[in-house]
Design a protein that fits this description.
It comes from Undibacterium rivi. The chain is an alpha+beta fold. It has 5 helices and 9 strands; from the N terminus they run E-H-H-H-E-E-E-E-H-E-E-H-E-E. Helix 2 packs across helix 3.
Length: 211
Amino acid sequence: MKTIVGAEILDHDRFATWLPILQAWGACHVEFAQQVDDAAYWYTERSNVGVLAQAAWRSGRMALEEYQARKSRQHGHATKEWLGRCDLWISDAQGGELIEAKQEYLALRSRQAVFLANRILASAVKDASHTRNDLDSAACGIAFLPVYLRASCAPTAERLADDIVELISALRTSDAGMMAWSFPAETREYLGADGRNLIPGIILLGASAIV
């Protein structure tokens, strides 16, 4: 059984500088599985934001999680503003990027995988578009998609690997401008807390937001 890990930039003009972060993100999940004998990706959205922040630091960026930020939303001709929190800010010498994230489990064999992924990603992008920063920052939405299937329907290791590759390929047609995936060999047969679902790994999708 081999680890399935990778990253791909679909919108090079917008996300080319993200490739080292995405590669480090995949490696963080693999190393966590190897050293802790657990899956970091199956916990909460907040936990997955933390892993992405670690990946940013590892790739030479700076990262700040859950910081106070101004939010705004247009209501007709009026603009409503309030203080909230931004999930993550990543920066390097060239500038910063604010990130709002959403997490939802994605069924490995869902025929609506692209539709569902786009819906989750759009929600993250919408949140990012409402977030303002005192610094000059770009913004993007991130969808964390832990992948699952019923443990009672678990296929052979070869078939499971094929299904994972097929899902990754399908999500290349999503609205994402960047994507990454991490399916550590050590957690390919990982069971969730209730033992009913197999959770072999996670896929990340990202898309730009206008702030």
